[in-house]
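Quick one from the shared queue. A colleague (R.T.) flagged Transcriptional repressor NrdR as missing a structural entry in our internal table.

Convert sequence to structure tokens.
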Amino acid sequence: MRCPYCGSLDTQVKDSRPTEDNTAIRRRRVCPDCGGRFTTFERVQLRELMVVKRSGRRVPFDRDKLARSVEIALRKRPVETERVERMLSGLVRQLESLGDTEIQSETVGEMVMEGLKQIDDVAYVRFASVYRNFREAKDFESLLGELNLGDGKKAEALAKLKRGETREPEPE
């Protein structure tokens, strides 16, 4: 494994252990050349997946890119990292088990939205607003209708969105 600090190819594993959900191996490494320490994760990959974009372009599936977009949607939300990791691992397993090496980007997006809906409604709305390219408030209104909120909660959520409040208030 190449050292991210000096580029040396001679790094040593100091500690290995499975992650909480047993879907990866976490390795602590050290570079003997510069002394830098870093962590790597090793995951099982059943097949090489390609994502077919709306433009028709094909790109390799990148779990880290998916994790970053989910992390952005969940920014400042009270969600445990373990839950997010379980959702991502489950999503990747679902994609790999579809039986096809080429997956439409729409399929990935819809699966992420479904996973976020189970974890956090605000993150779901955030992700959906970018993914579905919302242009006006009524787009949010129709999405909130999908959440099956009671009328009072729906009205409250809409009011918050219109005021730009997309996160819970900070505890005092």
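The chain has six helices and six strands.
The longest helix spans residues 81-97.
Added to the table.
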